[in-house]
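Weekend entry, working from home. Most of the wet-lab plans are on hold until the incubator is repaired, so I used the time to fold the two sequences that have been sitting in the queue since the last round of cloning. Logging both here for the record. First:
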Amino acid sequence: MRVAILAHDQFPGHAKTAVGILRYSDHEVVAVLDRATAGDRVADHLPDVQDAPIVERMADAPACDALVIGISPIGGAFDDSWRPDVRAALERGCDVVSGLHHFLSEDEEFATLATEHGCDLRDVRRPPADLSVAAGTAGDVDARTVLTVGSDCSTGKMTATFELRDAARERGLDAAVVPTGQTGIMVAGWGIAIDRTIADFAAGATERLVEQASDHDILFVEGQGALAHPAYSGVTTSILHGAQPDSLVFCHLPGHDAVREYERFQIPDPRSYADLYEQVSAPVSGATVDAGMLNTQSLSPEEAQTAVESFASDLGVPATDPVRFDADDVLDAVL
C-alpha cells in the first residue's frame, strides 16, 4: 500500500508513529506531511529508513492509497489544523488511518466525505467489542514471551520490540511481535491498543493477544507507558500481568532523569526501576529484567558506546542501542 504520513511540526523527534512506519512497515511511504521541514527529504533527518519527500500539505503529496496520522499528542486528541489535510485525502479517494483516541469515524464531516468518496476511516485504537477480564492463562502458552518495559513513555519500547523480532528471525527463529499500541498495530496489521480498553479488560486484552500469537516460538510483546509514570502506569501494569512474560527488556533514554511532561516526578535509577518491575511481576509470572535497551539517537557514537556500557553496568545485564548497534547480546539474554 502507498501511504502519506501526517507529522506536522513533530518530525522526526516527536513523531513516533511516523518513524515506526518508515522503519518497520511494508507500506511504501510516498510523502511525509510536515509544515516545519517541507522541502526536505526524510533522509535529511533520519538515516537507515525508507526515504520520501517532505511536503507542506496533502495536496502536494503524490498519488497514494491512504493518509496515516503519524503523531499522537498527549491524550490522543485531534489537532484541528490537520483537518484540511484529512479532508483533502478523503476527497482524493484515500483511506485515512488514525491512532488517536479521537475517532475520525465519529467526525461528522469526515464520515460524510468518506461515504461520498468510497473511503475507509480506520481508527486503530478502537478496541474489540467482546473483551473480558483476564483468566490468568497467558503463562500457559508454549512460546517464550518477552516484554519490553520502560522508564518513561517514548523510550524505545516499540523499536526494541521490532528490532528483537528481526534479530530473532535473522537467526531463523519463529518470532512475532504482539502489538499493544497504535504504531505496532499499523506496522504489524493486527493487535489491540491496550490504552483504549476498559481498565478491567486491559489485562484480558493483552492475554488474548498473547494467546492468539501462541503458534510462534518467541513472542515479543510491545510495552506501553511506565510503571512509575503518574499518568500511564495503569496500562503498563495491565500488560505486565496480562502477558505473564518470561523475560523483560528495560528501555531508557540516557540522561533522562524526570518524567517527560511531568518533570516534578523523578525517574528512579535504572537498577531500582528494574527491581520495581520484577517486584510487581513476581506474584503473577516472576519475570526478570534480563537485558536493557537505550535510545542514543541524540549522542555521538563515542558517547553512545559509553552510555550503553554504563547502562549495562547499572542494570547488571547486557544492553545495547538496537538501531545504532546490534541486538545479539540482548537477544541471547532474553532467550
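Second, folded right after the first finished:
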Amino acid sequence: MKKSYSLLVLFLCVLFGNAQDALHNYGTIQIHGNTNVGLHLNLVNDGTFDQTSGLVGFYSDENALTISGAYMPVLFDAEISVGGGLLLETSVNVQNNVNLITGDIITEKSFSAVYSNFLDYSFYIGESSASKINGYGAMTNKESFVFPVGNEDRLRPLTIESVAINAMAKCAYFFEDPNNSKTLNIDFNTNKKATDFISVSDKEFWRLESDVPSKITLTWDELSNTRALAEYLNELNVVGWSKVENQWVNLGNSAVEGGMGYGSVTSETIVPNDYEIFTIGGNDSRLETYSTMDLDNYFMTPNGDGSNDMLELEGIENSPNNKLEIFDRYGVLVYSKANYQNDFNGSSNREAVVRKGSGLASGIYFYIFTMHDLREKHQGYLYISN
C-alpha cells in the first residue's frame, strides 16, 4: 500500500503542483523504464526513492525548489530548470546524467555534509554561469572529474586527476578573501607563507576533500586578477593552506593554459586532504629585484650510459629554495620544477606541450634557474643530443 500511495501522491503532485507546497514521500517511489517525471514543487523524501531508471525533472520559472528529508534520493537522470535555484537540504545521488538548464544546485557552504553527488559513470551537460553547483559537488568511484562549481554569478570549475579511484571527493568554490572568510569563519593569512617568494590570491579559493594523491587544476577569469600575482603566465602556481604547517605552500605548476585574463593552472601531485583550501598564486613582486647573470652552457646525452644523463647545475646546494625552467627555441616552456635537485633527465613534464614523460628532441634549449635564497636568476643554454 505504501508504494501505491507514494506513486499516487507523485502523480497528483505532478498534475496539481500549485495546490500544495511539496511532494512528501513516506513510502517507496519507483520510476521505471523511460518514464519522465516533472516536479514543480518541493520534494521531502522520508522514504525510499532509490529505484529509478527514468528522468526526474525539477521545474520552476522564478521560485526556488527544495529537496529535503531524512533519506537521500538516488536519481538516474535529472534535469534542472529552476529560476530560483534547487536548494539541497539533503544530498542527492545521480547515476547517469544531470542536464543543467537554468538555475544553480545550491548547498550550504559552511559544511560539506550535503552535496550533489555524481556516482560511478555519471556525468552532466549544460554547465554555465547560469546553471552550476553553488555549494558542494561530489563524485563517487571516479579517478578524474571536473566539478562544475561556482558562486552566484560565475562558473569556476576545479578539475581533479587522481592516481587511483576516489571513493569520494567533494569540492566547493568561494568568491571570498581567504584572509577573512565570512562563510567558514576562518582566516587564512595570505602573508603567512612557507617562502617569501610566492604571492597568494586574496580574491577567491576552493575547498577540496580527497585522500587520494591527485593533481588539481584551478581556473581563473578577469575577476581573479592574476596580473597582480605574476607578470608571466608560467609564473602562476597552485598554492594551498597546509594543515600541518598552518601556512600557504607552493604546490607547483605542471601545466598552464590560456592567458592572464582567462586560463587554468595545474598543480604537482598532492594529497588534497593535507590542505584546508586552495587558490592561485604566483611569484612575489620582489623577484623583479633579483640580479640576473649568465651561467655555464650545458650538454646532455640522456641515453642511460651514466655520463651527462642529468642536468647538474653548479651551486645548487647554495639555494635549495629554487626553480628551474627550460624553454625550447620557440620560447615554449617544456620543463618546470620548484626546488630542483639535479634530476632533469631530458624529459618534459608539461602535458600541454608534448606528451608528459617523453624525451625532448635533440636541439638547443634555453634555461632560467632562479635561486631564491641568493636572490639571483641564472640563465644559459642547454644542448640535448639523443
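Plan for Monday: verify the second prediction. The longest strand covers residues 92-102.
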